[in-house]
């Protein structure tokens, strides 16, 4: 696709945006709202269960018109269609990108290499359902006949962040007499703390790894195996206490897990796009198959919206374009994601991987260095906690940080006035960020002259507000898909491959050489740089002293 496109900065819409930026960069949101009092409801889209208010952005109708031109000139429509058709748009890995097939309905057909993949997706979902029902009902028992009460997902990156985030987000819907934990880090502390109060007879491990070769996951899985064998004694116990989620049956069998207890997925599912594949087995065990299917229905609804809504009313497209606007024209380096819901506490971490692994790329699809910024840094914490720490910098610091505020009209835990207070804070923050507090306002409060400058809030800090009715499995599916497709939109504009991850692959091989040097008892010949050699020697000498 890239070869038929002009380089991004030569597109007429890009150039028009550059001159438009010069005109708009100093206009204040106070002015924009004064000029257009209906702006708050005009720059708003209500669709797919969301009320999306983007009026508090530094944009005019002209900005949106030009950004939409940019989307069109970037071939976004073709790119979306190519993804949904199952074309191999992940060109550096020569793979289709079909997380949308994971939530396709049974009657849909999506062809990859001549095969309709939707029936395979539903076969796995049906097997997961059967298994989840057995475990949740107590029919599936451990080796000694005890009911499974603890589920530990072992995985890392895309095989961890989605499951953890989804479990936390949907904890309200989870089976409360079961414990769910997630082990990802190769730091032994992660495993040790996860099992310290658990009974191996009641514990099921899900080893989640697309490749089943990832060092951290396999190390943790082997330790889990040892721990189980130590308690239960017999090799046959493994079959009742270990299941695998992977694309690599051979390695699963080598590890000693019966492939009957393996749930598969496919190379066209990227790790960070896999929480709704079998990688979501822990989610299904926690919230039950029916809720899991509602989650999928939410994803599917947003997929349909992304695929069919005109760009000017298309939530992921608008969000993606706004991110490009700030990152490439205003020079914003980061995006803060601020969910006003404690259940979404891991959502920013999840988005970090989704956005930064996807769009942290420095070359275009045809391998040319990009002369513009690509993926911004994503970060955030739930409100109102963040208000008492880093919001200071967003309000009065020197950097421009566009923010996404996410809130729900109904609480899952209505307690007195908690929810009104929570939501009042969300609205107040977006208002304060946009409009600030002028010198006159500060003076009129009787502020001494010497403090006036300190108490002034410039405002003009852009925000999106995403409101939904209630945090349900379906809403979560929509929310995740919203960001997935926004990331897609940005990648299409930047003409990059949002679906490879060579940086991660590098990490997977780099440590191996040093590991062998660190493990050797004698002093190996170290051929790294002087700093790395010294660090390895220091580590080994302290290790030897304590062994
Ligand atoms: C995701 C990345 C990466 C991956 C992990 C785990 O898109 O590729 O985060 O998910 O490295 O890989 P495995 O699932 O193969 O263990």
Question: Which terms summarize this structure?
Answer:
13 strands; binds glucose-6-phosphate; 6-stranded mixed beta sheet; 5-stranded parallel beta sheet; alpha/beta; 10% strand; single chain
List the helices and strands and how they pair.
Layout: H1 12-24, H2 29-35, H3 39-42, E1 44-47, E2 50-53, H4 61-73, H5 76-85, E3 111-112, E4 115-116, H6 118-137, E5 150-154, H7 161-169, E6 179-183, H8 188-195, E7 203-208, H9 215-232, H10 237-241, E8 242-246, H11 249-255, E9 262-264, H12 281-287, H13 289-308, H14 315-329, E10 334-339, H15 347-359, E11 377-379, H16 391-396, E12 403-408, H17 418-435, H18 439-444, H19 449-455, E13 463-468, H20 473-494, H21 502-519, H22 530-546
Parallel strand pairs: 5-6, 5-7, 7-8, 8-9, 10-11, 10-12, 12-13
Antiparallel strand pairs: 1-2, 2-13, 3-4
Helix pairs in contact: 1-4, 4-14, 6-12, 7-12, 7-15, 12-13, 13-20, 14-20, 15-20
Bound molecules: glucose-6-phosphate (G6Q).
């Amino acid at each position: 696709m890239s070869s038929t496109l002009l380089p991004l900065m030569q597109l007429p819409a890009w150039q028009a945006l550059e001159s438009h930026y010069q005109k708009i960069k100093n206009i204040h949101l106070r002015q924009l709202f004064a000029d257009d009092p209906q702006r708050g409801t005009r720059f708003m889209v209500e669709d797919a269960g969301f009320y999306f208010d983007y009026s508090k952005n530094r944009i005019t109708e002209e900005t949106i018109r030009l950004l939409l031109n940019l989307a069109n000139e970037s071939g976004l429509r073709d790119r979306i269609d190519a993804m949904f058709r199952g074309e191999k748009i992940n060109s550096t890995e020569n793979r289709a990108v079909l997380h949308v097939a994971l939530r396709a309905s049974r009657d849909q057909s999506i062809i990859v290499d001549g095969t309709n993949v939707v029936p395979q997706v539903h076969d796995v979902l049906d097997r997961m359902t059967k298994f989840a029902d057995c475990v949740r009902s107590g029919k599936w028992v451990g080796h000694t006949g005890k009911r499974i009460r603890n589920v530990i997902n072992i995985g890392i990156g895309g095989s961890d962040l989605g499951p953890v985030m989804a479990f936390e987000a949907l904890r309200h819907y989870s089976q409360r007499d079961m414990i769910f934990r997630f082990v990802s880090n190769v730091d032994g502390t992660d495993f040790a703390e996860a099992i310290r109060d658990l009974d191996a007879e009641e514990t099921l491990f899900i080893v989640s790894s697309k490749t089943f070769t990832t060092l951290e996951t396999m190390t943790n899985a082997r330790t889990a195996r040892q721990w189980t064998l130590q308690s239960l004694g017999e090799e046959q116990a493994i079959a009742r206490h270990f299941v695998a989620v992977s694309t690599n049956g051979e390695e699963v069998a080598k590890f000693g897990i019966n492939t009957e207890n393996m749930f598969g997925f496919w190379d066209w599912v990227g790790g960070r796009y896999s929480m709704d594949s079998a990688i979501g087995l822990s989610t299904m065990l926690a919230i039950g198959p029916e809720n899991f299917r509602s989650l999928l229905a939410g994803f599917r609804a947003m997929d349909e919206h992304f695929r069919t809504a005109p760009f000017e009313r298309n939530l992921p497209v608008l969000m993606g374009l706004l991110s490009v606007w700030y990152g490439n024209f205003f020079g914003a380096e980061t995006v803060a994601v601020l969910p006003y819901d404690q259940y979404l506490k891991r959502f920013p971490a999840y988005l970090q991987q989704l956005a930064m692994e996807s769009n942290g790329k420095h070359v275009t699809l045809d391998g040319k260095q990009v002369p513009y910024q690509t993926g911004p840094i994503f970060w955030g914490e739930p409100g109102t906690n963040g208000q008492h720490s880093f919001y200071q910098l967003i309000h009065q610091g020197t950097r421009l940080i566009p923010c996404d505020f996410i809130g729900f009209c109904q609480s899952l835990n209505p307690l007195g006035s908690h929810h009104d207070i929570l939501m009042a804070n969300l609205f107040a923050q977006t208002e304060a960020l946009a409009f600030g507090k002028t010198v006159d306002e500060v003076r009129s409060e009787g502020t001494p002259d010497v403090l006036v400058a300190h108490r002034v809030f410039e405002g003009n800090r852009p925000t999106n507000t995403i409101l939904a009715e209630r945090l349900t499995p379906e809403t979560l599916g929509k929310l995740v898909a919203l960001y997935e497709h926004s990331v897609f939109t940005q990648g299409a504009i930047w003409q990059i491959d949002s679906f490879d991850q060579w940086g991660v692959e590098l990490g997977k091989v780099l440590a191996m050489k040093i590991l062998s040097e660190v493990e050797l008892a004698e002093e190996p010949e170290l051929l790294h740089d002087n700093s790395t050699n010294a660090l390895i020697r220091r580590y080994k000498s302290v290790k030897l002293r304590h062994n």
